[in-house]
Amino acid sequence: MPIQRSIVHLIDKQPDGQPATLHARNSALADSSVVEHLLDELNDSYNAKQKAWGFFNADRVTYPFSQWLGQYLDGEEDFVALTRQAAEHLKTLMEGNNLSVGGHVLFAHYSHGDSDYLAIALLHHSEGVGVTDDLDVTPARQLDLGQLHLAARIDLTDWRGTEPSRHYVSFIKGKGGKRIADYFRDFIGCEEGVDAPSETRALLKAFSDYVESEDFAEEQAREKTETLIDYANHQARTGQSITLDELSELVDDQKPKAFYDYIRNQDYGLAAEIPPDRRTLHQFRRFTGRANGLSVSFESHLLGSQVEYDETRDQLIIHQIPTSLRDQIKRRRE
């Protein structure tokens, strides 16, 4: 993950209504294994968080960050000036939010795969204990990336491409309440453009419909489900979007365009790339059982809706029986 430029500034602010103070660094950080490790840890923590996805608001007067970022990418402003200006703007927005707390602000311009990204994160410390070379016990402070609450990532390549998506900006959804996260979203100037949970649910619904329409054998259906989940979770862990044509090839290497064409022909309204939602993916697993000539299999998210379990009677109640199964039963009864 090559780092092109990175820097850290400090915003000193307490949630007491007092003015904040910016302590700005005057030069970019030197390349080092420590900085690389920090960015790796930051990305791991960020990818595990629940995020919102969107794009830059067109109002560059109210939300000027995207204009400054564009000037940097066009070579009109250097990285240190960009980040200092941005940190000053963030400090001002913090002062208007009494619940906000200052911290170290990391800016990192880096490459991953074929894309360039800018990561921005507000970092805090945790107090620990260390041991010196003389074997004395001493207090030790370290960045607490496990408590990452305010961060964003911008896919610069997508944003500056000929047909940018509506999800080239992502940011962590605040756990401490919407008001705390709002000022950071406004700092980035992000307008939410994609509902990742809804998009992921639509993809999983399309996949379930596809499996049913193709009437795969149970083992095939299970394998294809595992392929989809493994791929989608990998994309989520690495902060990448689900690409429909790539997924289609993985689902069926003998007919690599079959699933992709099915989605397009059925018009599920899905974009070519979808930001994955890990919580939704976690709910999508298959329950499978076979005994005495009876085979039952269904996705776990259907339990409680299309499939109910009566524990007292030890019975499954299936609603909306698949058309093909219903037709077979009717023909048998004629």
TrEMBL record:
Family statement: Belongs to the YejK family.
GO molecular function: double-stranded DNA binding; single-stranded RNA binding
Domain of life: Bacteria
Keywords, sorted A to Z: Cytoplasm
Organism name: Modicisalibacter ilicicola DSM 19980
GO cellular component: bacterial nucleoid
Cellular localisation: Cytoplasm, Nucleoid
UniProt protein name: Nucleoid-associated protein
